[in-house]
Amino acid sequence: MGRVEGKKAFVTGAGSGLGRAISEMLASEGAKVCVTDINLDSAQATRDAINESNGDGTAFAFAHDVTSESEWQTTLEEGAEAMGGMSILVNNAGIGDGGTIEGTSFELWEKVHKVDLDSVFFGCKYALPYMREDAPSSIVNISSIAGLIAGHNMAAYNSAKAGVWMLSKSVALHCARKNYNIRCNSVHPSFVDTPILDSFTASLDRESLKEKLIRQIPLGRIGEVNDVAYAVLYLASDESKFVTGSELKVDGGISAM
């Protein structure tokens, strides 16, 4: 049996990058997966790849603007109906920003917080009723090492990802106090080779940026998407049944420096 056999997972931002890798990993380990993305074509591509590898009816795809409260309510209902329940929520959708406090407009500040933090609030809030019915359940929120370690040129991103970190702890304590049998944890990757790196390439081409970032990582390489997917798999599975309100760093050693 797979490590999440019989689980039903709802993964946002699943059309590419981390979200796609996480969805594929969970499906390969036995879960049904609802993949959502603001780009329906990319969500459907992830769905089709999963179903081709794991059998029809393993994955379902939905268009989903994670900044919309009403779309969260609708898509969660549709996803739970398609899968026959919901026991895993992965709040993965996010965008980057490379602005200093003086160089960040309020418009950009609001956009980053809506996508990276408000979406996690909506997901946790509106998924809980479904997850209570399908417990034991697990919420995994994708934060960032940038939510724990600040940078001079990531004002909005630092703030939003730090908010995800602390919100995860609040949700964990709420669920524990209510005896919901729902855990909530955050994952904190450092630099991973996904499209979000393009958000930080204002003055460097992508390869030059990667070389610069690698020099900051004790393990001497950029992270791969499955490095994060395996961390999510652990937290989504019952292997981590005594882990809640915690943060799992997948950072190549940066936070140890």
TrEMBL record:
Source organism: Candidatus Micropelagius thuwalensis
Record-linked Pfam families: adh_short_C2
Family assignment from sequence similarity: Belongs to the short-chain dehydrogenases/reductases (SDR) family.
GO molecular function: alpha,alpha-trehalase activity; DNA binding; oxidoreductase activity
EC number(s) given by UniProt: 3.2.1.28
Keywords on record: DNA-binding, Glycosidase, Hydrolase, Oxidoreductase
Protein name: Cold-shock DNA-binding protein family protein
Gene: cspA
DNA-binding is among the record's keywords: yes
SUPFAM superfamilies referenced in this protein's UniProt entry, alphabetically: NAD(P)-binding Rossmann-fold domains
Top-level EC class as recorded in UniProt: hydrolase
Cited NCBIfam families: PRK07069.1, PRK07231.1
Keyword Hydrolase: yes
Top-rank taxon, per record: Bacteria
